[in-house]
Design a protein that fits this description.
Length: about 300
């Protein structure tokens, strides 16, 4: 595996060449869902930038390359008892994608968008120069490149903030009979400093569910951890929907299971595949049988 500096030097040299020739180019990340025509003769390959370079618990920070997906990032930081404060819900979303496109998650009421948890970023500019941007150095670039969809340069390295992890998220489900009551309860929940995560789903004009989560290492002896990643586990949105209005319930969810709780079924998008193939019933047995196709990386 080439060291980070060598890969970045190759990227810089390629960009300089395209700039000198006045040619446009595309970026090859290693995989894509894009349906645009390929330009095999004009691209910059950054597929090698897919490593977690450092986890520093004393500084509560990690240094990563842009093609690191969320599940790999969480696995690496959890090994040191830390997690990123904002983690995109789908495990295959990359750090670079989160910075370039931004993302708001259930912890964003506390920490902001994903790009607001970035401490510094290394980029290759349009003419090939390699620069580092942060709040103290190149601050305009640092602020402008976030959510810019890669238009200001190629991101090659990011330093992210970390927070202490816990084993579980204690998640409380609060069903409400109206949209107004659900959104008002959600607003109040974001003002409660005890909450680490706040999420909500509106199922209909007469059914909404607020979910409030708190990081914890403790689980009552009478409780079992609730998981969502196994083939027989429930899809999260169906699980959250199960309680009637006014009946609160509580789950203790392993932290990684919580962060990627919407992976199976892709929120509720996976239900559309069953509707498309109308002859396939939508139940726990068909969801089990088709489980391999129901993860966001596959869909």
């Amino acid at each position: 595996m080439p060291p980070h500096e060598k890969v970045v030097a190759n990227v810089s040299a390629a960009v300089k060449g395209f700039f000198a020739r006045g040619q446009s180019f595309r970026i090859f990340y290693g995989s894509t869902n894009s349906t645009r025509p390929k330009h095999t003769d004009r691209f910059v390959d950054i597929s090698g930038l897919s490593n977690v370079l450092e986890v520093d618990t004393s500084c509560r920070a990690t240094v990563v390359e842009p093609n690191v997906p969320m599940d790999k990032l969480v696995q690496a930081t959890l090994a040191h008892g830390m997690i990123p404060p904002v983690v995109m819900k789908f495990p295959g979303i990359t750090v670079g994608g989160g910075y370039a496109g931004s993302a708001g998650e259930s912890s964003s009421f506390k920490y902001g968008y994903f790009d607001q948890t970035v401490k510094s970023v290394e980029m290759v500019l349009a003419y090939g120069e390699v620069v580092t941007a942060s709040e103290s150095g190149n601050p305009d670039l640092f602020k402008g490149a976030a959510s810019s969809v890669g238009t200001l340069g190629i991101t090659t390295k990011l330093e992210l903030k970390l927070i202490p992890a816990r084993h579980f998220v204690k998640l409380v489900y609060h069903p409400y009979p109206t949209i107004h009551e659900t959104t008002e309860a959600l607003r109040k929940a974001t003002e409660d400093p005890q909450n680490d995560y706040v999420d909500g789903i509106i199922y209909s004009d007469s059914h909404g569910v607020l979910m409030t989560g708190q990081l914890t290492d403790e689980i009552p002896p009478s409780e079992k951890p609730q998981k969502f990643s196994g083939s027989w586990d429930p899809w999260f949105y169906l699980h959250a929907k199960r309680n009637p209005t006014g009946k609160f319930s509580t789950d203790y969810i392993p932290i990684a299971e919580y962060l990627f709780r919407y992976d199976r079924g892709g929120f509720w998008v996976g239900t559309q595949s069953f509707r498309y193939f109308g002859f396939v019933p939508f139940n726990k047995y068909t969801r089990w049988f088709l489980n391999d196709f129901m993860h966001t990386r596959m869909m």
